[in-house]
C-alpha cells in the first residue's frame, strides 16, 4: 500500500537562513539539543551531502521503534531541497518497503519561507496495520525545532 503525507510550516525568516539549517547537518544538532524526539544522531558516513548516512536514536517511547538509519539520496542547494530514505531498522522492520522524506524550503517573500515536508511510503500488504506509524508528527516536530531556533537566532542578532 502506497501513501503520501505532506506538512507545511511558515517561518518568518528568509529561505536562505532556513536552508542553512536544513541543507546541512546543522538541524541534527538542534534536534538532539531539543530533546523531544531524538536522543542521539550519529553520522555513519559522509558530511551532509548526498550519500550521507545517519543513525538516529529516538527518545524512549517517542516512536514505535528506537533506532533507524537513513541515507540522504538527493541534495539540491539551488532548489533548497533534500531527500532522505530510511534504509535500515525502524520503518523497514515494521514492514515498510519504502519510507522517503522530501524537505523543501520555499521562499514566500524576502523575509519568510515555508518548510514543506513530504513523506512517501509503501508498506507490505501483511503490515498494513503499521501504516499509522507513517504520520506527520516527526516532520512537524523537526520543522518546529528549526523554526524555534531560527526565530531565536534572529531575535539574538537583532538585539546585538
Describe the structure using short key phrases.
160 residues, alpha+beta, Alpha-D-Glucose-1,6-Bisphosphate, Chain A, domain 4, 7-stranded antiparallel sheet, 43% strand, protein phosphatase inhibitor activity
Descriptive report:
The chain is an alpha+beta fold. The protein has one domain (2-159): Alpha-D-Glucose-1,6-Bisphosphate, Chain A, domain 4. 25% of the residues lie in helices and 43% in strands. The protein has three helices and seven strands. It has helices at 15-22, 26-34, 137-159, and strands spanning 2-11, 38-45, 53-58, 67-76, 81-89, 96-109, 112-123. A seven-stranded antiparallel sheet has the order 1-7-6-5-4-3-2. A hairpin with a 2-residue loop joins strand 6 (96-109) and strand 7. Helix 2 packs across helix 3 (137-159). The mean pLDDT is 93. Belongs to the BetVI family. It holds the Pfam family Bet_v_1.
Summarize this, please?
The protein contains 3 helices and 7 strands; from the N terminus they run βααββββββα.
Largest β sheet strand count, sense and barrel closure:
7 strands, antiparallel
Please tell me the total number of domains: 1
How many angstroms does the end-to-end distance come to?
A: 52 Å
CATH architecture: 2-Layer Sandwich
Structural class: alpha+beta
Q: Report the average pLDDT across residues.
A: 93
Number of strands: 7
Helicity range? 25-40%
DSSP helix count? Answer: 3
CATH class: Alpha Beta
Strand content: 35-45%
Give the overall shape, derived from the CA principal axes: globular
CATH homologous superfamily annotation: START domain
Q: What is the gyration radius calculated from CA atoms?
A: 16 Å
Regions with pLDDT < 50 over 5+ consecutive residues?
A: none
GO molecular function, one term: abscisic acid binding
GO biological process, one term: abscisic acid-activated signaling pathway
Keywords: Alkaloid metabolism
Family: Belongs to the BetVI family.
Amino acid at each position: 500500500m502506497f501513501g503520501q503525507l505532506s506538512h507545511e510550516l511558515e517561518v518568518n525568516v528568509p529561505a536562505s537562513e532556513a536552508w542553512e539549517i536544513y541543507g546541512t547537518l546543522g538541524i541534527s544538532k538542534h534536534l538532539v539539543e531539543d530533546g523531544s524526539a531524538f536522543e542521539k544522531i550519529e553520522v555513519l558516513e559522509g558530511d551532509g551531502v548526498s550519500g550521507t548516512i545517519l543513525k538516529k536514536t529516538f527518545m524512549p517511547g517517542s516512536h514505535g521503534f528506537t533506532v533507524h538509519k537513513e541515507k540522504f539520496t538527493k541534495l539540491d542547494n539551488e532548489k533548497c531541497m533534500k531527500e532522505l530514505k530510511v534504509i535500515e531498522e525502524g520503518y523497514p522492520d515494521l514492514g515498510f518497503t519504502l519510507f522517503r522524506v522530501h524537505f523543501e524550503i520555499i521562499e514566500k517573500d524576502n523575509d519568510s519561507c515555508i518548510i514543506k515536508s513530504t513523506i512517501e511510503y509503501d508498506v507490505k500488504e501483511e503490515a498494513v496495520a503499521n501504516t499509522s506509524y507513517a504520520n506527520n508528527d516527526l516532520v512537524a516536530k523537526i520543522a518546529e525545532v528549526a523554526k524555534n531556533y531560527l526565530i531565536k537566532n534572529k531575535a539574538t542578532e537583532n538585539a546585538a
